[in-house]
Every structure is written in C-alpha cells, then in structure tokens.
Amino acid sequence: MANASSGVAVSDDCKLKFQELQRKKAFRFIVFKIDDKVQHITVEKCGGPDATYEEFAAALPENDCRYGVYDFDFTAEDGEINCQKSKIFFIAWSPSISRVRSKMIYASSKDKFKRELSGIHYELQATDPTEMDLEVIKERAK
Hints:
Number of domains: 1
CATH class: Alpha Beta
Structural class: alpha/beta
Order of helices and strands: EHEEHEEHEH
Number of helices: 4
Distance between the termini: 36 Å
Largest sheet: 6 strands, mixed
Number of strands: 6
Strand content: 25-35%
Radius of gyration: 15 Å
Strand order of the largest sheet: 1-3-2-4-5-6
Mean pLDDT: 92
CATH architecture: 3-Layer(aba) Sandwich
C-alpha cells in the first residue's frame, strides 16, 4: 500500500528481510532504497550475520539518501552479571549533498516505513557519518 504523504509503497521483501534479521539473525544490517521508477521501497543490500558496522556504514552512499537497519549486539552489565543484548537501530541517512527531491521523498516516507518494521528500538537521523558513528550507537544502546 502506498504511503499517503509520499505515494511510496513498501515491498513485501522489505518486511520479510527485516523479520529474518530480527527473528533469525540472518543479517546484521539491511539497506533500503526508494526506487523512483516504481515508487517502492526495496531492499538494496543485506549484510550477513558476521558483517561489521563499518561495512554497514560503507553500504550507505555518500551522496544519496537511504534507510538502514542495524542489529547492534553488545554486553550489558547487570550487577555482577554480563548479559548479551541486541538492539535494532533504524537509521534515516540523508546526506547534506543529496538532491533536495530525494531528501523530501525519504523524509515524507520515513514514519510509515518505520511502522512497517515492527521491533525497532532506536532511530537515528544522520546527515553525515559522524552523526551515526559506532560510538553514537553504543551510547544510545546503553
């Protein structure tokens, strides 16, 4: 179904891949793009379960917008016990040098798309790599 504010629909593959990331840990990250020709959000790239955060960041183009989902694993200290935890981050990547039209379409489609992906823990809006640095992710996940 198309997004009322932008006219962009979400492909079923986006939801299926997200569920595989969330439930089966099949992926570490997913990068989504809006296909202008068919007005659909599609899966552009998936990183395997052993992919690094650096690989995720490198999968985002420096001059165009994307949505990204990253499954961040970390160890939390709970008293004297260390617990393995996982938090899913939704990153709206909108570099300042991208086209204005692209920024507008991604911004107007973001909320509906994010609702389609049930289970997001945190959201980041980034216009340059420093706003989504791994240290930012670690700090938010605490």
